[in-house]
Specification:
Shape: globular
Bound molecules: zinc ion
CATH topology of the largest domain: Aminopeptidase
Strand content: 15-25%
Radius of gyration: 28 Å
Low-confidence stretches: 493-499
CATH superfamily of the largest domain: Zn peptidases
Number of helices: 16
Strand order of the largest sheet: 1-2-4-3-5-16-6-15
CATH class of the largest domain: Alpha Beta
Largest sheet: 8 strands, mixed
Distance between the termini: 39 Å
């Protein structure tokens, strides 16, 4: 299939994807509580012929391809919404007050379902396997680690991963696709909560109390020391206290004062973040002690920075230019390689396997789509749904094709010794089998049954030539055919071979 044909096939799904997206948009759910969304996605996948399986608290995995040997590519859509009350003037607005698909994850789910349909239709062309991931709880940075802890990257083992996020409220035509081409593309994020304990009392008698508000104010100022005086010029580390609270009444000194905030860095190992955290603890406790208080500092909901694999990023940009031409942009060239400030929990995956992220413009600010994601009035333009489905599909087709397993023609082989010599040469197999042909047969059987390793051809020619008592080759062939023609007795596949 070529890019033009794929875009046409995706365009034919546009109406169906709009209906899916509107349905999901009316039923937003947050975190892991996807009582409507998850069964909805499961049903759609089953209707397409998939056998989706649960992963973690509320995730789903479905596999496409696997008929031809090759690698496994993970494609991710997140399914969760935000705790926002929708104010967008759309006729498919949220039916649940206090919840809204304000980050476009309904778009992501619809687009990946579109890709699932396209991939199913072209399953025979896939040189490997596509693992479709439908993820909960992205907005609270917990869905990705939960799925990782529950085997997301195993069975089959994932070799590379990709995600697509829509963006609205940008001065960019719909369908513009930004591909991150390497390095850190989004910052890490970690939450903190500081509690300063003093001793409450009457506002008229501060000498009998220990004022936690004064101590918290000093702590707030002292913390600025870290970014102003302790980070090196080329280190990126910002933290912001976004909520500061203490007391309820004007004439009462409270027992405690509290601060909440976030730390962000672009250090893949988070060494900068760990240093900031250590100094925050020291400063909070030291300043609190100087002012007769105590302080507790807690850190939670850590999400690392997103790391894009340069080789995969460059390949993705190339594929996307094949698909949409100049509408595919190199994000690194646009930003000068600077990471964006927002965070994304697919970053956890990016630290395990080569990963690429892409951003699809879905609402031009100069054309009525004024608000960005997470705003209660944000709208996303449905018009890009089909393109999003095509982006996922094309990335999978192209990347798997370029990483297809090597093909080895065994049609000319006559003996186990010859097969050994051939595999040794082509696969750089060590010569550890010696004359132990049983061990060799086991090893080759292993290769034959591991689809990611090798694509064998010519088995039928080899089989036709086999002496009927060639036990070693018979064993190899039996396992090979068990994989490529399951359910068929080897004798049916192999002329000249005993059942
Ligand atoms: Zn979001
Ligand atoms: Zn999002």
């Amino acid at each position: 299939m070529d890019a033009k044909q794929l875009l046409a096939e995706a365009a034919a799904l546009q109406g169906e994807l709009e209906a899916i997206r509107h349905d999901l948009h009316r039923h937003p759910e947050t975190g892991f509580d996807l009582a409507y969304t998850k069964p909805y996605v499961r049903k759609k996948l089953e209707e397409m012929g998939y056998a989706p399986r649960d992963c973690g608290k509320a995730g789903l995995i479905a596999l496409a391809g696997g008929k031809k040997p090759g690698k496994t590519l993970l494609l991710r859509a997140d399914m969760d919404a935000l705790p926002l009350t929708e104010e967008a003037p759309v006729d498919f607005a949220s039916l649940t007050p206090g919840k809204m698909h304000g980050c476009g994850h309904d778009m992501h789910t619809a687009m990946l379902l579109g890709a699932a349909k396209l991939l199913k239709a072209h399953e025979a062309e896939l040189a490997g396997t596509v693992k479709l991931e439908f993820q909960p709880a992205e907005e609270i940075f917990q869905g990705s680690p939960d799925m990782l802890a529950n085997g997301l990257l195993e069975n089959p083992t994932v070799d590379a991963a990709a995600m697509l996020h829509v963006i609205a409220g940008v001065p960019m035509p719909n369908g513009m696709l930004q591909v991150a081409t390497g390095g850190v593309s989004t910052a890490s994020c970690e939450q903190y909560h500081i509690t300063v304990h003093g001793k409450g009392g009457h506002g008229a008698s501060p000498h009998l109390a220990v004022d936690p508000i004064t101590a918290a104010a000093h702590i707030h100022l002292a913390l600025q020391e870290i970014s102003a005086r302790e980070l090196e010029g080329n280190e990126f580390g910002i933290f912001t206290t976004g909520r500061f609270s203490g007391g309820e009444v004007s004439n009462v000194i409270p027992d405690t004062a509290e601060m909440w905030g976030t730390i962000r860095t672009t250090d893949p190992d988070n060494a900068v973040g760990e240093r900031i955290k250590a100094r925050m603890r020291e400063i909070c406790q030291g300043v609190a002690a100087a002012l007769r208080c105590t302080a507790e500092v807690e850190f939670y909901d850590y999400c690392p920075c997103m790391y894009v694999d340069p080789a995969l990023g460059a390949a993705a940009l190339r594929y996307m230019r094949e698909l949409v031409g100049p509408a595919a942009l190199d994000l690194n060239a646009l930003t000068g390689g600077k990471a964006g400030g927002g965070s994304e929990d697919f970053a956890f995956v990016s630290h395990k396997v080569p990963t690429v992220t892409m951003f699809l413009a879905a609402g031009n600010s100069e054309n009525g789509y004024r608000y960005a994601q997470h705003h209660p009035q944000v709208r996303f333009d449905d018009a890009v749904l089909a393109q999003g489905a095509a982006v996922h599909t094309w990335l999978a087709l192209r990347w798997l094709a370029e990483h297809a397993a090597p093909t080895l023609d065994v049609g000319g082989v006559k003996t186990a010794q010859e097969l050994h010599a051939l595999l040794k040469e082509k696969l750089a197999l060590p010569d550890f089998y010696g004359a132990n042909w049983d061990a060799f047969a086991d090893a080759v059987s292993g290769l034959v049954t591991l689809p990611e390793k090798l694509n064998f051809t010519g088995w039928d020619k080899l089989a036709a030539r086999l002496p009927k008592d060639s036990a070693i080759l018979k064993k190899i062939l039996t396992e090979h055919y068990a994989r490529t023609a399951p359910g068929q007795p080897p004798a049916a596949c192999l002329p000249g071979m005993d059942a």
